[in-house]
Amino acid sequence: MSTKFIDKLWRSNVLRPGPEGLVRYRSGAPLSRRAFNAGLLAAGGAAATAPLWRPGLAQAATGVNFMGWQGYEEAFAVGGFLDANGLSLNNTYMNDNNQIIATATGGGMGNMDIVTPDHGYTPVMAEIGILKPLDLERVSNFQNLFDFFKTTPGPNVDGTQYSLPFMWGSVPLMYNPEVVKEKPTSWLDLMKPEYKGRVAVVNDVISVMIPFIMTATGTKTPTRINKDQLKAAVDLIVKFKKEYARTIAPGYGELADLFASGEVVMSQAWEPVAAWAGDKGVKLEWTVPKEGTWTLIDCLAMVTDAPHEAEAYAMMNHGLSAEAQAYVANANTTAVTIEPALPLLDERARGMYPYDDIPTFFAETGGGPFPLWPLDPEGDLVTFDDVLNEWERFLKA
């Protein structure tokens, strides 16, 4: 990964510091760490795993180093797993997938253990050597994944598993049905005159660029496009910003607040936004427009030269247990990847995602999950660097 590319990520607001730290794709208070009682689920028998160290030996807890989305780390403590195995966590909460790359390539390898890349970034991190190929014999809960996630490209790179699908979802078009009476069918509905000044998008390169590329060009391969297609998409979102948008929300938590206050009635939004706004008294609905949208799979992975390999394997395996998955999903209204977790989900978390037919969900959202744009030139295809250049044009417009 070149220094030039890392510099571009900073300039494009992907890694740029903000008042609350780094600007993250799925940021906001609703996903911040909740007060967690490790014994809350103990009665459910979640800690039925043999200790990693021999009982009776007096020793300090082994500190395992975690960099990932805030809230996901709670999976490791469910059922008292950490205490039972003499472990503790040293948490660094990431603000974007690129922070993993910047930290690992900036001297972090040899100190980092577990990270949470998404499906698109896993192949990139594998290619540049910062992720360790996983031995699935040491991850027994992998067998409990929904079949769709066992071989999904991204976590699995040419037959080698580099990350473990942990949570999934999408960024559809969300709206307040009390104001938007007619269900939207296209991303262009954000530009209807009657909603002018009451619509928004989030400062999120991937989940804005992908649907607007699909809308502007009609392509079903939005990360494999040429420069004319990229320009057409950014021209469209610049028009949206200048003529229709109330704001560009810094994160999805802030977007939920805008929905709750009534300032915004329609926006591109991650599914948990509906739950967060609902907690503030505003019921939202969402739809996948005919053009399609971005889908995501967040994963667990191990950094090359992890100093606590055995402990990291055990923690990731526990993170794929039914109890751990359900706890995180119920707390954050995210989706589980492990089928045995379904009976443990509360009604809200269970009802938000189409568990009955996951492959069809991904197919009908436009064909994702999509890979990232190429890092290096490939014929006339735009690179991720080209996308970031155009994103800067949008932000400055």
Tell me how many strands there are.
15
Structural class comes to alpha/beta
Distance between the termini: 29 Å
Q: What's the tally of helices? A: 14
- CATH structural fold name of the largest domain: D-Maltodextrin-Binding Protein, domain 2
Mind telling me the CATH superfamily name of the largest domain?
Periplasmic binding protein-like II
pLDDT below 50 for ≥5 consecutive residues: which ranges? 8-59
Question: How does the major sheet shape up?
Answer: 6 strands, mixed
Overall geometric form: globular
- Rg to the nearest angstrom? 21 Å
The CATH C-level class name of the largest domain: Alpha Beta
Question: What would you say the CATH architecture of the largest domain is?
Answer: 3-Layer(aba) Sandwich
The number of domains is 2
Overall mean confidence score, pLDDT: 86
Elements, N to C (H/E): HEEEHEHEHHEEEEEHHEHEHEEHHEHHH
Helix content: 25-40%
Biggest sheet strand order reads: 4-3-5-14-8-15
Portion in beta strands: 15-25%
How does this structure look, described?
The structure is a single chain. With 397 residues, the protein is α/β, with parallel strands linked by helices. It has 2 domains: 33-168 and 297-364, D-Maltodextrin-Binding Protein, domain 2 (3-Layer(aba) Sandwich); 173-292 and 373-396, Periplasmic binding protein-like II (D-Maltodextrin-Binding Protein, domain 2), CATH 3.40.190.10. It is built from 14 helices and 15 strands. It has helices at residues 3-11, 81-84, 97-108, 121-127, 147-150, 205-217, 227-243, 252-261, 272-279, 309-319, 322-332, 347-351, 358-364, 384-396, and strands at 17-18, 21-22, 62-68, 87-93, 114-115, 156-157, 160-161, 164-171, 173-175, 199-202, 245-249, 266-268, 285-287, 294-302, 335-336. Strand 6 and strand 7 (160-161) form a beta hairpin. Mean pLDDT is 86; it is low at 8-59.
